Amino acid sequence: MSPDVRNDLDAIPAYVPGATVPGATKLASNETTTGPLPSVAVAIGEAASGANRYPDITARALVERLADFLGVAPENVTTGCGSVALCQQLVQAVCAPGDEVIFGWRSFEAYPIITRIAHAVPVQVPNSADGSLDLDAIAAAVTDRTRLIFVCTPNNPTGPAVSRAELGAFLDRIPDRVTVALDEAYYEYMRSEDPVDGVVEAMSRTNVVSLRTFSKAYGLAGLRVGYLVGPAELVTSVAKMMVPFSVSSLAQAAGIACLEAGDELRVRTDAVVAERGRVRDALLGMGFTVPDSQANFVWLPLGDRSAAFDEHCGERLVIVRCFAGHGVRVSIGDPDENDRFLASAKEFVTGM
Ligand SMILES: *Cc1c(COP(=O)(O)O)cnc(C)c1O
């Protein structure tokens, strides 16, 4: 007989990563197509020679550099093994068993998983028809048991971002005892009017935190480092939940180098933003419905046709991310990769 384990493990969904198929075009995980910025690659190489030593457990140098970069105090920043780890630490820090965590749906697929892991209860609020978060419905879903709300902006996988005015009105409706986490994994790709700066929001409220990452625009998905900015007491609570040494010395060095790379990042994100517009326009021209995206992917709300579209693209060696019955998310790659995807999409609509 095997040892006793939690009796709710079957209720915890598995995280489904984007598939990697040798030789195929991978547009399934919102990665950058190029490696780290050259200056960052050098810093990683240098850090590798010290890998026999444990990393700084508090990532002090990175935290101080981030604080300086963001214009906040070091007490307002903590780092984690990717921002997904910080999402999990946050749930663990604020929720007791049975407490509720609210988020839009669809949204980041890790939310229900990390909520269940912490013995808390996920409350999923359907998005509006245009793929944007329904902030009114989220505010209306708050109960006495609510401890945390994830606002993913831009929203993964649907794309739209919340405006600053909308967010302000929403936050005014949320009781101070409830923490609101602004998940800004795609912050660097936003080019919207009246954009939210989660760090500014986090510094002007007592119950708001911002989560950002080096995985997406900075191209360090394989190194695992993200950060959380918020009121000092919340930051301390979240940091307590960290698995010791979970931000490696390579990740710390790479994060610091990223912040020193300056304009190099903007050039890269501008290129992705231009391609995002081109891909979306082409899809709209083919008759697809495509919500406005402020991230490095587009969303096709294909409903029942999602699996067929996914299969169709896969047969043409273009790997997209299917959420069966809901839609398909397609990352923005290089122009030639995007062309391969658009050719597949075109064949799908013309039934070839
Ligand atoms: C990718 C992603 C993250 C986290 O990425 P990490 O690699 O763990 O930093 C967090 N939130 C959303 C919405 C994401 O899409």
TrEMBL record:
It catalyses: an aromatic L-alpha-amino acid + 2-oxoglutarate = an aromatic oxo-acid + L-glutamate. NCBIfam families: PRK03321.1. CDD domains: AAT_like. The keyword Transferase applies. This is Aromatic amino acid aminotransferase. GO terms for molecular function: transaminase activity. Residues 25-343 form the Aminotransferase class I/classII large domain. The lineage of its organism: Bacteria, Bacillati, Actinomycetota, Actinomycetes, Mycobacteriales. Its cofactor is pyridoxal 5'-phosphate. The keyword Transferase applies. The modification N6-(pyridoxal phosphate)lysine is found at K216. SUPFAM superfamilies: PLP-dependent transferases. Aminotransferase that catalyzes the conversion of aromatic amino acids and 2-oxoglutarate into corresponding aromatic oxo acids and L-glutamate. Pfam families: Aminotran_1_2. Its EC number is 2.6.1.57. Belongs to the class-II pyridoxal-phosphate-dependent aminotransferase family. Homodimer. Keywords: Aminotransferase, Pyridoxal phosphate, Transferase.
